[in-house]
Amino acid sequence: MAALRVFSRNIPYLRQQFSALLGNTSPSVKFICVVVVIGYILSFSEDVVDVLSVTPGYLLPPSFQLWSTFTFWFLEIHLWEVIIDIITVGLCGKLIEPLWGQMEMMKFFFLTNIGVAFLTTFYYLVIYSWTQDTSLLFDIHVHGLAGYLAAVSVAVKQIMPDHLLIKTPLGKLTNRSLPLLILIAAILLWAVGALEGTYPCMWGSGTLLSWIYLRFLQRHSSGTRGDMAENFSFDNFFPTVLQPIVRGILRPGHRCCVRIGLCSPSTRRVHLALSNRGVGVIIPGVEPQDMERRRQIALKALSERLSKTSEQTRQKNLSTKVNMEAVRKMQSSHVIPQFPTETETSQPAAPAETTLIDISADPSPPTTKTS
C-alpha cells in the first residue's frame, strides 16, 4: 500500500516527464508508444498473449503464422518493460530520427523486429534439435521490444561510440560496450530465474541483425551502403583484450561472404577531394557518412551550448540593468537641488573686462578699456 501511495503521488511528475519526452517527436514514435501501452493492457488475457506472440512451433510449417511477426513486438507483460520501451523509443525520436529521417527509422524498426522473430525461432529450433523438448517449440512465447532495444543500442554505438555514460571503479562505461554488457546481464538474470529466457535471445538477435544492417545494407544519401568504419567492426563490441581473438575467428567467414558478394570488403584508403570549400581528406577507416554524422552531432552540441550561453548572457545583462536602475534611483533620492539666493539674483553682474590690442606699426603697449 505504501508503494502504491508513493506511485500515485508521483503520477503528475511522471506524466510531465513523459509529455516532455514525447512532446516534439514524430507521429510514428507516438504511435509506437500508444500501441505498446495498449498491448500491455491486452496482455492481462492469456489467450491474447498466445494469439499475438510468436510461438516457434506455430511460426514454422504447417501452421505458418507469419502475421504474428507484426504483432508480437507491442505485447509487454511487465510495467517496467513498458516504461523502458517508451523511454527508448522517445530517445530514438530525439537522437536517431533527425539524422536518418522518419522513413528510414520506421524501416529499421520493422526490419529489426521481423528479423528478431525469425532468428529467435531459429535459436529455439536448434535447441530443440539437441534436446528433443517439444515445450521449447509450443510453450515459448516471444513478445516485446527487447530486440529493438538492442538494435537502438547498436545504432547509438555507431553514432556516439565514445560517449561517457557512467564512471565505475573498474573503468568508464561508454556506448561502445553497452550492447554486450546488457546481453551478459540478461543471461545472468535468466540464469538466476529473474528474467525470461526469450529476453537474452531477443537481445542477441537484435544486436546481430542491426549490426549487419548498419554495417553492410543501410543506404545513405551519398549513394553508398553500410558503414565500414574501423570503430564499428564486430570485434569492437568486445573488450580490447578479446578483439584479436574475435577478429581471427570472424576473418574466414568475412572472406567467404566477400567472395560470394554478400558484403563488401573493408578497404583502407586515403582520398583527397578538391572543392570550392577546400580540401576534403578521408583517412583510413573513416567513411564519409561517418564524418558527416559526427559533424552533425558536433553542430547540434555547439548550437545547444551557444543557446545556453546566450540565455545566461541575456539574464546577466538584464540583472545588471535592473541593478543600475536601482542605483540611479537611490542616487537621485539623495541629491538636494541648489538654487541661487535672493542676494545673488538682486546684485548686478560685474562688468566684463575686455582687452584691445592695437596691431599698428607702432609697437606700443596694448591699451585696456573697460566697458
Automatic annotation (TrEMBL):
<dbReference type="GO" id="GO:0016020">
    <property type="term" value="C:membrane"/>
</dbReference>
<dbReference type="GO" id="GO:0006890">
    <property type="term" value="P:retrograde vesicle-mediated transport, Golgi to endoplasmic reticulum"/>
</dbReference>
<feature type="transmembrane region" description="Helical">
    <location>
        <begin position="177"/>
        <end position="195"/>
    </location>
</feature>
<dbReference type="GO" id="GO:0005794">
    <property type="term" value="C:Golgi apparatus"/>
</dbReference>
<keyword id="KW-0812">Transmembrane</keyword>
<dbReference type="Pfam" id="PF08551">
    <property type="entry name" value="DUF1751"/>
</dbReference>
<keyword id="KW-1133">Transmembrane helix</keyword>
<protein>
    <submittedName>
        <fullName>Transmembrane protein 115</fullName>
    </submittedName>
</protein>
<dbReference type="InterPro" id="IPR035952">
    <property type="entry name" value="Rhomboid-like_sf"/>
</dbReference>
<feature type="compositionally biased region" description="Polar residues">
    <location>
        <begin position="333"/>
        <end position="348"/>
    </location>
</feature>
<feature type="transmembrane region" description="Helical">
    <location>
        <begin position="21"/>
        <end position="42"/>
    </location>
</feature>
<feature type="transmembrane region" description="Helical">
    <location>
        <begin position="77"/>
        <end position="96"/>
    </location>
</feature>
<feature type="transmembrane region" description="Helical">
    <location>
        <begin position="136"/>
        <end position="156"/>
    </location>
</feature>
<feature type="region of interest" description="Disordered">
    <location>
        <begin position="333"/>
        <end position="371"/>
    </location>
</feature>
<feature type="transmembrane region" description="Helical">
    <location>
        <begin position="108"/>
        <end position="130"/>
    </location>
</feature>
<keyword id="KW-0472">Membrane</keyword>
<dbReference type="InterPro" id="IPR013861">
    <property type="entry name" value="TMEM115/Pdh1/Rbl19"/>
</dbReference>
